[in-house]
Amino acid sequence: MEALLQVRDLKKYFPVKGKWFQPTTHVKAVDGVTFSIQKGETVGLVGESGCGKSTTGRALLHLLPPTGGEVIYNGRNLTKLSTSELRVLRRELQIVFQDPYASLDPRMKIRDVLLEPLEIHGIGTKQERLKKVEEILEIVGLGGHYANRYPHEFSGGQRQRIGIARSLILRPSLIVADEPVSALDVSIQSQILNLLQDLQEQFDLTYLFISHDLSVVKHISDRVGVMYLGRLVEFAPKESLYSAPAHPYTQALLSAAPVANPDARPQRIILKGDVPNPANPPSGCAFHTRCPHVMEACKSVRPELAPVDGQGHWVACHLHQQ
Ligand code: SF4
Ligand code: MG
């Protein structure tokens, strides 16, 4: 397999205006994230809210201009493309949002919602575009007759199917799915996850799947990255991440996740305190204020991602770098 996407040292900082006596500071929402996604693969990105996973997804698509780093898609450096080159490439790089309702104009019929991306990219004649709309509604399991309806006439799961149809209608190769099932009931969640998996096979799609829910990510991903305060702290094939988590933060997240057999649950690890303020992250290892294994060096030396096993399991923690 070849890498479809390479993300290198990606950074996204947001300025925070200080009071009159303070200089402007920055929230380092994404602070040096490196990983790749193979063609046809699903990479999951997990972490608590505010850890920078959504910002990573938007910055790598250049929906938010990155502050630093590089994104290589299919051999092309997105960071170096002009706005118009990026606009053309946008067709191949799509996003599915958590709440499709918020991104659907309530006054637009579904037909027009789905025609819009085709019109923006100048695809086909009017007739061909209408045909594509009917086709895509069938593909996502809704049926062409839904085209005449308005967003409020759909359930949450149906709206997410429309959100997926809207990104899929351009026949992209990479889809960033940002919490696509988090707003849905559990029974509907699995329908949408199954749909995403079917579509992946049918259309040779590559996914970056962002979620705070470890069991959802486990279900759908080939490899998984765990983020904490704007950085990847662990990145590994799904099997080794879930069976042998190496980072104390991942261990704590997994110990708190619901499991089918509660007797098989590892002992719950309770973390001290809350996630620190990202505008003023702790020095050294940003997790050191909450880590049950904190050592002296952790307070001053920032651990870099390094291989654990030579099998593609990486972790950023001094416990593994002695
Ligand atoms: Fe804990 Fe130190 Fe590892 Fe950070 S580097 S996770 S503080 S042991
Ligand atoms: Mg988010």
Automatic annotation (TrEMBL):
It comes from the Bacteria. This is Oligopeptide ABC transporter ATP-binding protein. InterPro entries: AAA+_ATPase, ABC_transp_ATP-bind, ABC_transporter-like_ATP-bd, ABC_transporter-like_CS, Oligopep_ABC_C, P-loop_NTPase. It comes from Brevibacillus borstelensis AK1. Belongs to the ABC transporter superfamily. Keywords: ATP-binding, Nucleotide-binding, Transport. PANTHER family: ABC TRANSPORTER, ATP-BINDING PROTEIN, TRANSPORT ATP-BINDING PROTEIN. Pfam families: ABC_tran (PF00005), oligo_HPY (PF08352). PROSITE patterns: ABC_TRANSPORTER_1, ABC_TRANSPORTER_2. GO terms for molecular function: ATP binding; ATP hydrolysis activity.
